[in-house]
Hints:
The chain is mainly α. The protein has a domain at 3-36 and 94-189. It contains seven helices and two strands; from the N terminus they run ααβαβαααα. Helix 4 packs across helix 6. The radius of gyration is 22 Å and the shape is elongated. It starts with a helix and ends with a helix.
Amino acid sequence: MPLPVRILIAGLVGGILVFFTGFVEHEILGWGSRTFSAVKNDDEFRKEIKGHRLEPAIYAFPSMPNEKTGPEMESFIKKWEEGPSGFLIVAGDMNMGKMIGLEFLSNVIAALIAAWIVSLISADKPFLWRWKVVVLMGIFGWVSLVASYGIWWQFPWSFIRDDLLCTILEWCIGGAAIAAIIPSTAKEKK
Length: 190
C-alpha cells in the first residue's frame, strides 16, 4: 500500500481511537469534570451574571489593565491579590453535535500530523520507537499549552493533572495504531 494512503488510514484510525478514548475518559471515568467546583446558589449567581449582559468571551476580574507597567498594573496586582480574582468564561449556545464533530475533526487532524511525522522517521526504527514519538508529540502539546494555563491562568493542578492523564492515554492508544499502520521503510522493502 502506498505511503500516502497509509498516512491517511493511520490518521483516521488514530483520530478515531483518540476520540473514543477521550469519550471514555470524560464520560465514564469523569476525568476533567471531576475537578470542577460548584458555585453555591447557582441560580442567583447565574442571574447576577445575566444582569451584566456579557457576550460569550473570557472575562478577567479584576479587569486587565491596558498598560502593563506603572500605577495601572500596580493597582491590578493589588486587586488580584486581595481577591476574589480569576477568569469567567461565558459560553455561547450549546450545540453538542457541532462540538462533538469539531472535537472529532481536531483529533483526526492531530493524528494525521502525527502519522506524517512518523512516516519521516528513519527506516531502522522499530514499532516501539515510532510509538514513543507519537506519545511524546502529545505530551509536547500538553507542556506547550495546558501547563501554561496552570502557570498563567492558575487552572487548578487537579484539572491540569487530569488533562495530562488524558493526553498520555489518548496518544498511547492512538499512537499504537499510527505506529503499527506506518511501518518502517525497511519492513516495507522486505
